[in-house]
Each structure stands twice: as C-alpha cells, then as structure tokens.
C-alpha cells in the first residue's frame, strides 16, 4: 500500500467533522495544509509585495514563517491559486466509491497504482483506504485509518517554494537592516 510520496510535502490531518459520506468524514479544507482550488486574491505582483511586507512585520515581531498567522494565510491563498480542486476530486471520488457495490480487493498490485483516478479498499459501506488523483495523474489526497493526507502537486510545491524564497530573502534583509546579523535565517542550505 502506497501512502507516501517522496517528491511532495505530505500532511496528515484529522477530518473537519462537519460532513460525512458513508463512513468517510470530509477533510478540513480550511486547514493550512489541505489546499483546494480558489481564485487568486490578488495579482502575483501584489502577492510579492504582501509577502515582503509580511516578512518585514514577522522579523520585527521575532516570528518566522509558520509562527506567523499572517504568513500561514498568505501561503494558503498563494498556493491555492494553483491547487487542484481537491474538494471536487474527493467528492466525486467518494460518490463513485459508494455508488459501486462491488467490493475491491484488499491488496493492490503495481498496475492498480499506475492507472485510474481513485483506488480504494471497501467492505460493505466501510471505506478503509482511498487514493485520489488529479487530471495530471498526481495523487492529491488519500484517506487511511480515519485520517486524510494531502499531497502537494508539482505546481503547488513550486509555488510554495517561490513564496518561501521571496519571504526568506525579505526576512533576512529586514534582519540585516535592523542590525541583527545573528537573527538571520540561512535559507541556502
């Protein structure tokens, strides 16, 4: 059973507890690590300005990256602009799983992982494992042992890395401007 992805940041989170399809609770799409497609809140130039301003503000407050609620909010908004529509992918996948009355095998072979958009293990109405893929074939989420796991896509990972680069450079510049070379964060290495 594949539950890891070596090229992505994997985050395991409890469910939201608000909705449920069969035995599977909905993931919490408001969680910092569980992005789904949203329209950009601003242009990329305005995001860059907002990221730089947030870094300066965080440095002055002695915070860095996820220690800052403002940073977490910017990351969620910035990355969600390129995220797959996880909410729709998961909803459609669960509908297909519960619509199918045929029980799936408990073990999957290599071909099971290479083809298809949803892989799952189901007994009656109890789903114990499911994988969800976007139209590019990238796994975007899985459900296992009552927990949701979100997998970053290549586009999400690239956009988040871009944000970190802007933020870290601005944070270090603000630290130097404040005379604090010892409080700089080494991001090169």
Order of helices and strands: EEEHHHHEEEEH
Helix content: 25-40%
The backbone outline, from C-alpha atoms, is elongated
What's the N-to-C terminus distance? Answer: 33 Å
Cα-based radius of gyration, to the nearest Å: 19 Å
Number of strands: 7
Task: Please tally the helical runs, counting DSSP H or I stretches of 4 or more residues.
Answer: 5
Oligomer: single chain
Strand count, sense and barrel status of the largest sheet are: 5 strands, antiparallel
Describe what this molecule looks like in 3D.
With 189 residues, the chain is of the alpha+beta class. It contains five helices and seven strands, in the order βββααααββββα. It has helices spanning 44-61, 69-80, 86-99, 110-114, 154-177; strands at 10-13, 15-21, 24-27, 118-123, 126-133, 139-144, 147-151. The strands form two sheets. A five-stranded antiparallel beta sheet has the order 1-7-6-5-4, covered by helices on one side. Strands 2-3 form a two-stranded antiparallel sheet.
Give the secondary structure arrangement, pairings included:
Elements: E1 10-13, E2 15-21, E3 24-27, H1 44-61, H2 69-80, H3 86-99, H4 110-114, E4 118-123, E5 126-133, E6 139-144, E7 147-151, H5 154-177
Antiparallel strand pairs: 1-7, 2-3, 4-5, 5-6, 6-7
